[in-house]
Amino acid sequence: MYDSLINVNGSQVPTLDILLLLTIISLLPSLLIMMTSFMRTIIILSFLRNALGIQQTPPNMVLVGIAIFLTLFIMDPVIKELNTDVYTPYKNGEITTEEAFSQAQLPLKRFMLRNSEKDTVEIFAEMADADAVEDVEELPTTVVIPAFMASELKKAFVAGFLLYIPFLLIDIVVSSTLMSMGMMMLPPAMISLPFKLLLFITVDGWNLLFSSIITSFR
Predict the structure, then answer these.
(1) 146 CB contacts (<8 Å, ≥6 apart)?
(2) Comparing C-alpha atoms, which of 176, 168, 175, 205 is closest to residue 190?
(3) What is the DSSP string of 182-206?
(4) In the chain, what is the greatest distance between 2 CA atoms, to the nearest angstrom?
(5) Of all residues in the chain, what percent carry a pLDDT higher than 70?
(6) What angle do CA 17, 20, 24 make, to 5 degrees?
(7) More confident residue, 70 or 179
(8) 73-117 pLDDT, tens per residue?
(9) Fewer CB within a 10 Å sphere, N or C end of the chain?
(10) pLDDT tens digit sequence for 19-52
(11) 8: part of which helix (H) or strand (E)?
(12) Rounded distance between C-alpha atoms, residue 1 and residue 41, angstroms
């Protein structure tokens, strides 16, 4: 029995609990990425880069950095709620670890449900054989998270499709013009890229994109 216990600050903690805690900590970054606005944001930014036809500009590190700070901006109300209702009471010893973990799920669950499509939530609830509930906030997290992820992927790909349309039109016009002039050996991408950049700069693309991403979340 003694071999299965580890002494921490004078108290004995079961080894299994420590292993479980380490597992949760290792999975936490992935969980937070999937439970916040990060996933949709980084996918939209990747689509934009591909639509412009500049594969390495901005580099991946810059895109991830932009997505992180936009996520912090979007999730600021949720972070403040977690700090006020969960972290501060836990730090002051007003609630236990189990209560803190349970209460921390509520703000994130509300955010995910607000940004999940109703049909998607119902599909995952049906597949999980979840009991019928009067309030969707009573659904288990194992249903809410995959429904939110599926909704985010759909919205991100719709946004990517809309981003591609104007740049695709530029590619078509440039290719048709080059073919009509008999300049088939000249790469169309080389000619269309400056026009794509000019269009993006003219419409103040970055501000328009950032504001669209932020306002798309509820």
Answers:
(1) 124
(2) 175
(3) T-TTS-HHHHHHHHHHHHHHHTTHH
(4) 85
(5) 86
(6) 140
(7) 70
(8) 998 888 888 888 877 877 787 777 777 777 877 888 888 888 888
(9) N
(10) 766 776 777 777 778 888 899 999 999 998 888 8
(11) strand 5-8
(12) 49
30/35 Cα distance (integer angstroms): 9
Report yes or no: 48 and 197 within 8 Å, Cβ to Cβ. no
For the chain, the straight-line distance linking the first and the last C-alpha, in angstroms and rounded, comes to 51
Strands 11-14 and 5-8 come out as: antiparallel
For 46, 68, 154, 195, 196, the CA distances from 62, given in Å and listed in that order, are 11, 10, 24, 23, 20
Cβ neighbours of residue 72 closer than 8 Å, sequence gap 6 or more: 79
- Please report, for the chain, how many H helices and E strands are present, in that order: 10, 2
- Contact in structure between 45 and 66 (CB atoms under 8 Å): yes
CA distances from 103 to 33, 59, 124, 181 (A): 19, 38, 23, 67
